[in-house]
Amino acid sequence: MNAEAHAAHPAHSHPPTATGLDNLKLGFWVFLGSETLFFGTFIATYMIYVGRSLEGPYPHEILDIPLTTVSTFILLMSSLAMVLALNAVQKDNRRGALLWLMMTAGLGSIFLGFQAYEFTHFYNEGLTLQSSIFGTTFFILTGFHGIHVTVGVIWLMILWLQTYAGRIRSADALKVEIAGLYWHFVDIVWIVIFMLVYLMQEG
Amino acid sequence: MPTTETTRSTSRSVGAVLWDWLTTVDHKKIGILYGATALVFFVLGGVEAMLIRWQLSRPEAAFIDPDLYNQLFTMHGVTMVFLVGMPIAVAFFNYLIPLQIGARDVAFPRLNAFSYWVFLFGGIFMYTSVFAGIAPDGGWFGYANLSLREYSPGPNMDFYALGLQILGIGSIAGGVNFITTIINLRAPGMKFMRMPLFTWMAFVTSFIIITALPVLAVALFMLTFDRFWDTHFFNVMAGGDPVLWQHLFWLFGHPEVYILILPAFGIASEVIPTFSRKPLFGYAIMVFSGVLIGFISWGVWGHHMFTTGMGPIADAFFTISTMIIAIPTGVKVFNWLATMWGGAIRFTTAMLFAVAMVALFTIGGISGMMHAASPADLQQHDTYFVVAHFHYVLIGGLLMGVFAGFYYWYPKVSGRFMSEKLGKWHFWTFFIGFNAVFFPMHWVGLFGMPRRIYTYAEELNLGALNLFMSAMSLFMVVGTMFFIWNLVRSWRKGEPAVANPWGGSTLEWSTTSPPPDFNFAELPVVRSRNPLWDNPEDYDERVHTEPAGGVHMPNPSFWPLITAFGSAITLILFMTHIWWMPLVGLAITAVATINWAFEPAG
Fold this sequence. Notes:
Chain A is mostly helical. Helices cover 75% and strands 0% of the residues of chain A. Chain A has one domain (19-199): Up-down Bundle (Four Helix Bundle (Hemerythrin (Met), subunit A)), CATH 1.20.120.80. Chain A is built from 7 helices and no strands. The N and C termini of chain A lie far apart (63 Å). Chain B is mainly α. The longest helix of chain B has 36 residues, at 66-101. Chain B is globular, with a radius of gyration of 24 Å.
């Protein structure tokens, strides 16, 4: 690209691409494709081992569907907040952006709080990483999901701080959009986990 | 086009040069780093192979004790697959993809640097175990439950589980980068169906990387948890199943085979047309057969597991799917032959290696078909027949292709030719040595010699053949020495090369040798598949000096290096079994990542 063309594209935006799509956005979609296989493998492993525990507590004895329905609902609502946050950023509505980014991170944190409660509760009931194949697969699958949510919350908090400092305007909406892609992805993974682990339990 | 005299930095201090390479985000420099590092590991892996051949040169020999032998064959496999095969392909991807599609760099230059540093530190991490005498010893496939703490109590398989994990992270980052680069940074007019075959194969390979490596990552996490925290993924006593490891490993492992071979296919598809002076025969079919191989590579993993007792339906499925994957592969072989047919062939060293690649890969492919038939495979499983097969594929296919690529693109990278005379010596010693080692290995396998066993009984009467193979392997050593000497010597003393020394047809030959930092003074416009042959007037008079006002290039960065370093430190501290220690490494990684995210990319 020559100097004139570059001048037309300020430092924070990318030069034009062959498809017109932003590099970061495209690359992030590719990364999410890779993540799909990551969670897919953990979920498949869980499904293969369903009903093969030799010792309790078994899933039907310990999984609390009403409680987890509440935390699932909260996580789903955080996706709504994420959409509203992106909308506010795109419209240069700083107050709205701050509110909804905080709301997204906050709902995500509440979800993590539920998970922390659930994990301690299960642990006290005798379900541990080592207690049975259910314990192993359950904690590792939901644990890796929880780590992803945690990363998302930290990411959102950084975006919130940047917005607060006035460094995220509508021209930077892509940064929020990509965080949103990640957030929605993690949310969708949870829906699959909730269905397969909690709702379709057997044994 | 005039030759640009290479301006080697003689005036700059050593520190400045070092800093330049440590912080570089230039895809060409990163490509060179990848290539050089992979060659170092190639020599290490080769030394391991020679020690194995030494031990096997006589029946019931005791040059090497069984424990060390286990470490040697494991590290030989791990090294050649993860530290040589993949990174050497990525070296070519890095250097060539932006040049072939007419771009200034990859989509994410700093991520690219990160991938390299992760590879380097991951490799060093793995090799600390070798020099400490506690290297992984459970085979490169690390089968559970042999790899569990109960049967591998030492730290050996910890290095395996953690080392491959970090190498995988770098590979996935690379895959994301190359896919984005190829989709998004093509020059004007560079439609998908005009892309050089090498770039196409890199594209397919990158898709396999981003889909197959996460599966390995998960399997390695399970192994790590089983080893460090006594979880039950592969523990039969608690309802786990070691065969799950085999499924996950080969679900990754068979696509991995195509990650290794498709780049060599791509190289052959560039070299053969150039030295036949004919466009590639059946371009579209070559593209689609590569894509098809990529897809089918996901449905053949079970052929590694016929002896685990998957049942007749699964056996039949994997037999058929494996035979089907031979069709697009065979199509490629015939298209290379058809490209040469009636061409004005010049047997340069690069062409010799490319033709050898086609021939030797075909031999490996045919023995692969013999394994595909599950009843036959039951006899061949875990014998040297299998070892012969995959060395024909990986040395005969991958390595011959890579050698062809070195001789073909070296003038572009260095501005000088590699010596053809040394090249011919390299080719013939290596070619003869390779076939003399690995062809008899088919017989040794069919006679019943099992692989991965440190010795064999004299009564098998395989001593003479084994001694022959061990002796002939020295030819491969000599060939490799010719190669490395040629690489080093030609860097300063080779014949100077012009921009398009071989008369190639693709965009990388339109810029100077070596290319300037910015690759192209102005981005090329592409009007056909073989732009330099079809529209030479578009490229002839172009002078690649920096235009007035400069070319905007990405800033160098130190943070990818620190991020990768932090990840490696995390792993090393993990080995202490003190659970707060890895947090130190994670903190380094986190600080570096945040600095990386907030630093201007340029």
